[in-house]
């Protein structure tokens, strides 16, 4: 059953959910199927529809992915993650909370009831640099649609790619064939509460350029 959120509310309150994922509540597989059907309606470059979705619920497979994820994520976070010394004190405080929640997810990835990997047909390593945006542009809108559909049903997720440092190991674990590129890992669970709010953002005027920079 979907929520009564307006389109604007849905778009502005779909957050990256990490600490508020409910690890103990099962997720109905039909909810995942419904949300992926919605994701398949997203734009696809040249209508290629080259996406593939791997839904992982097996505890041993989730544990294997969780271990590989931690192996990549924790050193990254220990090294400062995406921290920027140029941020204002207020922005640094927010980033500290983001890093803390990212560490929490890394330490608990194996507990998330559903892990969804979004992939694309084709070897991303062979795609020229100028064509990389077009290649991944066929996956990004679909993954975002999936996240919106989850939010409308009381579930949450977070876009993460830190597992890609061990993409070959993940591919062997899940039997992903050669020529299929992993693009995103989406941990999926019901959320602890649904009262998400718009995030603090820099003013539009600080990033808006009209006609010229």
UniProtKB/TrEMBL annotation:
<feature type="domain" description="Nitroreductase">
    <location>
        <begin position="13"/>
        <end position="180"/>
    </location>
</feature>
<dbReference type="Pfam" id="PF00881">
    <property type="entry name" value="Nitroreductase"/>
</dbReference>
<keyword id="KW-0560">Oxidoreductase</keyword>
<dbReference type="InterPro" id="IPR000415">
    <property type="entry name" value="Nitroreductase-like"/>
</dbReference>
<comment type="similarity">
    <text>Belongs to the nitroreductase family.</text>
</comment>
<protein>
    <submittedName>
        <fullName>Nitroreductase family protein</fullName>
    </submittedName>
</protein>
<dbReference type="InterPro" id="IPR029479">
    <property type="entry name" value="Nitroreductase"/>
</dbReference>
